[in-house]
């Protein structure tokens, strides 16, 4: 409800909105309206109150909260349940738990901090408080097992577009799960599946974005950057989260109804590795060659130095120095 009050105030930014009008629109008492306004102010929203005129939103807050996100979602959002945790071990762990308890598809977990954030293959993901976006979505797509990794690519398009809408910053995609800004890692995507041999039960998609960090620990300093470190500005995390979720919805819908091939051009338009000389490192081997592109299923096509074409399903990619 607090999110709806905020949404109404945003819709009437240029004029005052009376307490009576808000209480009518939301079918709640004037006292409740006052309580919501008071609570929004405590979170840092600057709301002007003038007698006989009403309320006007003068300044946004950077607090990440459920209503700060919900108030920016499209009306028929598929993300009806947003769970916020001040500190989580990993939003992936929280989401897997909710999934096992039968959470609805479209449930999202957002944390202000992760104490055990994780990447692929047991690697860790640095997730300090107050500065980044650490979130996981629970999805239940009707796709075949081999198709599930495509969801990472769909998510990458949504994150790139969401960041651009909220901040005007253009980010690149590095197959399969990294987003780069000026060649440094600004975000990572971790897609984990619960599946039977023949069917996907759920897919938990984790998204980590460095937003307002100004420094990084020694071990990631060389590879990581944040939106703020690049521009010197502070960004509203809730606004970025909402734009990503809004973008994700139509992309996911298109993916489920028309297939990944329909979204491939959007992905390719932002992919930096394609056409370049790369090294793909898999647990079994390292292959060097030219990344020719991805196929209709999202598999990376790599032509090695002996002209042999490899289909790469999962790997770490480095640009070749040769
Ligand atoms: P990845 O395995 O591709 O990348 C992990 C590597 O990235 C690390 O080994 C380290 O070198 C580097 N790294 C660690 N932290 C950061 C950081 N903050 N910024 C840039 N580089 C970093 C990528 O895995 C997938 C990451 C997903 C993270 C999200 S956050 C929400 C959700 N919860 C969770 O525990 N993980 C996901």
From TrEMBL:
InterPro entries: aa-tRNA-synth_II/BPL/LPL, Bifunct_BirA, Biotin_CoA_COase_ligase, BPL_C, BPL_LPL_catalytic, HTH_11, Transcriptional_repressor_C, WH-like_DNA-bd_sf
Pfam family, any one: BPL_LplA_LipB
DNA-binding region: 19-38
First-level EC class: ligase
BPL/LPL catalytic domain sequence ranges: 67-256
Summary of the function given for this chain in its UniProt record: Acts both as a biotin--[acetyl-CoA-carboxylase] ligase and a repressor.
Domain of life: Bacteria
UniProt-listed Gene3D superfamilies: 2.30.30.100, Bira Bifunctional Protein, Domain 2 (3.30.930.10), Winged helix-like DNA-binding domain superfamily/Winged helix DNA-binding domain (1.10.10.10)
PROSITE patterns recorded: BPL_LPL_CATALYTIC (PS51733)
Keywords: ATP-binding, Biotin, DNA-binding, Ligase, Nucleotide-binding, Repressor, Transcription, Transcription regulation
Annotated organism of origin: Evansella vedderi
Binding annotation for biotin: 114, 118-120, 185
NCBIfam families for the chain: birA_ligase
Identification of the protein by name: Bifunctional ligase/repressor BirA
Catalyzed reactions: biotin + L-lysyl-[protein] + ATP = N(6)-biotinyl-L-lysyl-[protein] + AMP + diphosphate + H(+)
